[in-house]
Every structure is written in C-alpha cells, then in structure tokens.
Design a protein that fits this description.
384 residues, alpha/beta, 42% helix, Rossmann fold, 7-stranded parallel β-sheet, 3 domains
C-alpha cells in the first residue's frame, strides 16, 4: 500500500497565513501554561481554566493587559485581586449545555456522549440542539446570542490552532445531505475523497450526512485499499438514511474498523441540528452560526473545492466559492471541480461562473467530470 503523497509547502495555505500573521497575544489554555509564565501575564489571554485558591499571587503578578475568558476562580478573593490589578475578565455563561469558552474542537465521542442532568440517553449534540431550539434558534435573547457568538469564536480559535499544525492543503467537498448510503454516488464520493487524501490533501466537509459523510469516510480511510473501502460502504448501505434509528450505530461499527491515520475535518452547524453530525470526521468544528461556518469552510479550502450533486445549499456554496475566487478574498483562485457532468450541465451554473470570472478578467480553474481520478489530478496540478 502506497503512503500518502507529499505536496510542497504552500505559502498561501491556512497554516502559512496563520504562522505569518502578527499575533502578539500569548494564548493560555491550561494551568501548566499559566504557571510557566511565572506571574508575567501582561499581554496574555487565559481561556477556560479553573484556578485553584492561592495558586497565583495576583497582587505580585503583572496583570495589566491580562485577559481572562471564562476563567473560574475557585476563590472569589483571587478574582477580586486580578480585577484590582487591571485584568479584563469575561465571565462564564452558566446553565448551558455547551462551554462558550471551550479550548478545543469537538470529536465524535464528545458529541455522542450522554449529557448528565437531561433526559437519559440524550447526547450532548442533541442537548445543545434542543437548547438552541428552545432559545429561539437564530433569534435568541441578547445574552444567549452573546454566548453563542463567544462559542463560535472559540471554535474559530481552536480550528486555527489545528490548521497551524496541518502541513497539507485542504480540499472542501460539498454535496447534498439527502444522498443515501445505498446510492452509487455515496460510494463514488467516498472513493474520490480517499483519492484526495492519498494525493496529499486534507478533506473538509460540512460535517453532516449524505455526501458529507461519504467524503469524511473517504478522507478518514485513506490508508485502506479500494476493496476495503467498498466493503465499508456496503455495510453502511444497510441503513441508508440518517433518519433511521440505527444510522449512528452502524457508522460506529464501520468507524471502529478504520485506524484513524488521517485528519478528516467536519464543520457542521446546529442551525441544521435536525441533521446528525457524521461519525467519520476526526475533528469537528461545530458552529451555531451557519453563515460563519459556511464562510470558514470555503475559506480554508485553499486546495480547491469539489462540488457533488446537491440542492439549493450546494448551489449557494458554489456561488460563494466563486465570489471568493473571483475577488481573491483569501488568496489566488483555487480549483472548482464539479463531479457529475450531467447534473451540472443541467444546473447551468458553470457557464455563469465562467462569464462572471471573464468579466472580472480573472482565471478560475474549473473542471466538470465524472472521473474521480481526473479530480485528484487537477487538484495536484494546481499545487504544482
């Protein structure tokens, strides 16, 4: 079995842009990191940490310019001392099924784990969605709105920290959430994503079911042979739609057969919380705001975006990606690949994008194809 192909360093990748950016604030996400600073805390941001009584001499520490995000002081006197010294303190948001100041991305196990204090068997993912619904969905009150925005900011920050460690280009795969596991397109999308991952890329999706699940599966199973992947798809096809009660259980059985040697990235949203988060993303950046999530997903796909057949949501992503490419919002244009020639010919979107790019005198690499090997070849050619 051949290892992943390695691509050259990309100076315009999310990782390169993050490492090149001026970031004067020192971010601290653990007690050990806090203690290592020895009281020199000016220009430091501490996030999501619980501080034991007397563990920091706040009267002696340099705290002017210190920012504390959701930090819990076990001794109120310590909090008062930090505030007196000039620290800026953003308090926690209690009574919610999510931590607004979380310091890492989600994973399958955390979202699927039952949450204490709620209906027995209710997962954290479902509990947060129920809370989101109860608070008015996209029209919550001012405090809940702030808590959700702080949460999404924390997810953005955690995603940036992951991208700083990823030395491969990222390819987004978009497509319909209604694609059945038993459909031929599911297996094709999984095999294409496997080829993309083996070609030296990280696969990123919207993190939901359908084509997104297929792509995350392929991105995760990069080290498997094609026959092994097809066997996994056949197992999933026994429970084709995400509305089936056994949908997640079958996914877990398949996931347990894969040694996770690849990053497979998912960016779902509680805005579509009735759709489950798929179980094949190793790192899950789940947002409340769908608009933030959509922009982030397309922005980080510096290696290109592959569009499989989908509905209005997929078409929206096509034009959003086209705008980012034509205006070079996040750097030079990346390939736009349309898998499923007949579907995209009938949609009429490709000639319109080509015309818009021509009007702005901008070259955007566009491929319409049914050949998954051609997809990988075009993406690799773009990387030089």
């Amino acid at each position: 079995m051949q290892p992943h192909n390695r691509l050259g360093s990309d100076p315009l990748s999310p990782r390169a842009r993050l490492l090149a950016a001026s970031r004067p604030t020192i971010e601290v996400n653990s007690l050990s990191e806090l203690f290592a600073l020895g009281g020199k805390l000016t220009g430091v941001a501490v996030q999501g940490v619980s501080i034991p009584p007397g563990s920091v001499d706040w009267d002696a520490a340099e705290v002017s310019g210190l920012t504390l995000l959701g930090v819990v002081f076990e001794d109120p006197a310590d909090e008062e001392a930090a505030r007196r010294g000039g620290a800026l303190i953003f308090p926690a948001f209690p009574g919610r099924p999510y931590d607004a100041y979380r310091t890492r991305l989600y994973d399958r196990d955390e979202l699927a784990r039952p949450l204490s204090g709620v209906t027995p068997g209710t997962t954290r993912d479902a509990s947060i969605y129920e809370h989101y619904q109860r608070c008015g969905r996209d029209h919550p009150d001012v405090v809940e709105s702030l808590a959700q925005r702080v949460h999404d900011h924390a997810i953005d920050d955690a995603l940036s920290e992951l991208l700083e460690q990823v030395d491969r280009p990222i390819v987004g795969v978009m497509g319909g959430h209604g694609l059945l596991r038993s459909d031929a397109g599911f297996g094709q999308t999984a095999e294409m994503a496997r080829g993309i991952a083996r070609g030296g890329f990280v696969v990123a999706t919207g993190g939901g079911p359908g084509a997104m699940e297929a792509a995350n599966l392929g991105g995760l199973a990069a080290e498997l042979g094609a026959p092994e992947l097809r066997s996994l798809v056949r197992q999933l096809a026994k429970v084709p739609h995400w509305s089936d009660p056994d949908w997640a259980a079958v996914a877990d059985k398949v996931r347990d057969q894969i040694a996770p040697t690849s990053i497979s990235l998912g960016l779902p949203t509680w805005f579509y919380g009735h759709e489950p988060t798929n179980h094949f993303a190793t790192h899950i950046a789940k947002y409340f705001s769908n608009s933030v999530r959509e922009d982030r997903l397309l922005a980080l796909a510096n290696g290109g975006v592959v569009f499989t057949p989908g509905g209005p949501g997929t078409i929206q992503e096509v034009f959003q990606d086209a705008a980012q490419n034509i205006y070079q919002t996040y750097g030079p244009p990346a390939p736009m690949v349309f898998l499923g020639a007949q579907n995209w010919a009938e949609s009429g979107v490709v000639p319109l994008i080509e015309r818009l790019a021509e009007q702005k005198e901008q070259h955007v690499s566009i491929l319409v194809t049914d050949d998954i090997d051609e997809v990988v070849a075009v993406l690799r050619t773009h990387q030089g």
